[in-house]
Structure formats: C-alpha cells, structure tokens
Design goal:
The chain is an alpha+beta fold. It is 31% helix and 36% strand.
Length: 204
C-alpha cells in the first residue's frame, strides 16, 4: 500500500510540475512583450501621448522599410525612404497599403527598430500599427506615422554612435478574419436589398 501511495504522489507531483511549466511558458510571452515595450529590448519602440518640450541639436537619419508576409496579398511600403530629424523633433510620414485580392482582408503590422538599442528612445504618437487594418478588394489607403526620438538619447553614452535608425514594418494576415466576413455579409445583404428595391420599382 505504501508503495502504491508513493507512486500516486510521484505521479501527482509530475502532473502539477508539468502544469506549472506550461502555465509559465504561456505567461512568459505577454510578460516578455511587456518587458520589451518598457525597455525597448529587441528594437521595440515606445508609445507617447505628446511631444517633448525641447529638442537637441543632434540629427538622426531615419530610414523606413515595409514588408508583407506571403500569406497577405497586399502592397505595402513607405511614401519616402528616409528623413533627417533633430532629437525631440516631431516628424510625420506616411506608408501606403493596397489590397490586391478580391476579398475583404484584415491585416496587422509588427514593427522593429534597428539598431535595437535605440528602440527605447523611439516614441510614436500616432501609428497604424496600434490597430488592425481592414481593406476592401482593391482598396488603397494611406497609413500615417507620427513620431519623435527622445532627446534623452543625447545623454546615453552607449548610443553616441547612433546616427542612423531604421523603422521597419511587416504586415501579416490577421488570424481572426471574422470581422471581415461580417462586413462582407453586411455588404452583400445591402446589395441584395438595393437589387430587390430596383426590381420592385421596375415591376409595379
């Protein structure tokens, strides 16, 4: 009996251990994401509500890059390849996107800064990456980005060599396309209603 009880305790302990490890693995993803957002680790940019009160006479060339995952039939890219800005200066640039498919599609954008150590000083006030983008078939849109580079960069000796920063985006097909389907269904229903009205008016 004792041996049986001991085996049961071992099995229960192993099950609990596995559950704890699985839970920790799932928890580590959002925790790591939050950590990156707070520290700029891995080239993660920051989010700001307003511009800084002052600028610094140090210029940084910011280049822009745009990519699209093969699963998303969109065109996407920046309207301009680079600009030169002072630290603390607010800049406004635009990307553009076009849905080349015959379906309503929802896309989501990820972003990255290189060199990654400059990520904690790159602040976005406005960005299309904050929300998912829904495009109708053939629809083209402008995607604005409003940002600045924190003047605090000037006091970080580890970033003394930073003269160029690249802001890169990649659009992916959103996993949840249910909203796109509901929009499509709503439009089809509206079109059917209009067609029915036209037919009724043509046949009194």
């Amino acid at each position: 009996m004792r041996k049986t009880d001991r085996n049961k305790r071992i099995i229960i302990s192993l099950v609990v251990f596995v559950c704890v490890m699985v839970g920790a693995a799932y928890a580590s993803v959002p925790l790591y994401t939050l950590f990156c957002k707070a520290t700029g680790l891995g080239g993660t940019t920051q989010r700001a509500s307003e511009a800084p009160a002052q600028t610094k006479d140090r210029y940084i060339t910011v280049s822009f890059d745009g990519n699209v995952d093969s699963a998303l039939p969109w065109e996407f890219g920046p309207d301009q390849r680079s600009i030169k800005v002072k630290l603390g200066e607010v800049a406004n640039i635009k990307y553009h996107a076009r849905n080349n498919s015959d379906k309503i599609l929802i896309g989501t954008a990820t972003f990255n800064i290189q060199p990654s150590k400059a990520g904690e000083y790159f602040d976005k006030i406005q960005c299309f990456c904050f929300t998912k983008q829904t495009l109708n078939p053939g629809q083209a849109i402008e995607l604005p980005v409003k940002f600045f580079i924190d003047p605090a960069l000037a006091y970080d000796r580890e970033n003394d060599d930073v003269t160029d920063i690249t802001l890169s985006y990649t659009f992916f097909l959103a996993k949840d396309q249910s909203n796109a389907q509901s929009v499509s269904t709503g439009k089809n229903g509206l079109n059917q209603l209009h067609t029915s009205k036209r037919n009724n008016s043509a046949n009194p």
